[in-house]
Amino acid sequence: MPIPDRIERTVNLGQPPERVWEALTSAEGLGSWFGDRATVDLRPGGTAYVEWDDGGGKVTLTIVVVEPPSRFAWTWGIQGLPATDPRRTYVEFTLAPNGGGTRLTVVESGFAQVPDELLDTAYDGNVAGWRKELAELADYLDAAA
Amino acid sequence: MPRPDPEAIAAAVFAALAEPTRRGILSTLAARGPMTATDLAGLLPISRQAIAKHLELLAAAGLVLAEPGERRRIRYRVNAAPMAMAQSYLAALARDWDSKLTRLQRTLDAPEAAARASRGTDPTD
After folding, report:
1. In A55, A140, B49, B93, which residue has its Cα 20 to 30 A from A112's Cα atom?
2. CB-based contact A9 B97, cutoff 8 Å
């Protein structure tokens, strides 16, 4: 049951990289195919917000790479985790000219990362220590039975 | 002890959730807060001994934490960290780039078709 740490897709689009770049990086573009509304501060370190109308909420993208019209990347949180969770996945778009169109590759990675805090809280010797306590509990229960 | 890998953590969560008794224990602890094996036995249709065994498995997998209470009574609480690990597994399955990329393709094609139509040069005209 391996966790797919890396998701990769490639699609061939009929439009040139400049057009695809616009759709990927502009507020208008991200607010149409990706979400329902978006604001974008397009620079490395900049922030983009994308909102969904159908209860999908709002996500914050931290822009990492802006190399028009060939590379665009951001990090964002993992769906379903609290906003305070430190884990972020990395999403990178690569645009390559393909005839008159574009070969677009998207790679998202980092799903299988293990945060230190998880190791600290779940596995930092607690388990071994409590095995002993649990053995005592079992004895206690058996004696009471 | 060896560093646990994410797969093992997620597997432990899903295994725990697949078993009705352990699911009942986790659900009860999540809904009502930390409690002892005896408390759980009062709420669930299972013997205290069976609950203790399940709690031992859950604790070994890091899904519940045992905390000492009065008179050697051990209280158990849900440990959220492994659940969050399983959540990231689900998130990878739920990210759904296929739908997003299909929408991107449609969005890119749509204005072009509209522009062609307005110029009257759409070959289907």
Report:
1. A55
2. yes
Q: Say whether both B49 and B71 belong to one domain.
A: yes
**Across the interface, do A118 and B66 touch by the CB < 8 Å criterion?**
no
All residues at 6 or more sequence positions from B32 whose CB lies less than 8 Å from its CB, including other chains: B43
Mean pLDDT calculated for residue range A125-131: 46
Tell me the backbone φ, ψ of residue A50, rounded to 5 degrees.
-125, 130
Structure tokens at B7: 């797969």
Cis amide leading into A2 (omega within 30) = no
Using the beta-carbon criterion (under 8 Å), do B107 and A133 form an inter-chain contact?
Answer: no
Size of interface A-B (CB pairs under 8 A): 150
Domain that holds residue B124: 96-125
Q: Tell whether ipTM is more than 0.90.
A: no
| Nearest in space to B90 (alpha carbons), one of A92, A120, A112 | A112
Tens of pLDDT, residue by residue over B87-123, are 888 888 888 899 999 999 999 998 665 555 555 544 4
Could you give the CA distance from residue A19 to residue A17 in angstroms, rounded to a whole number? 5
Reading the block at residue A125, the tokens are 């010797």
Our count of domains for chain B comes to: 2
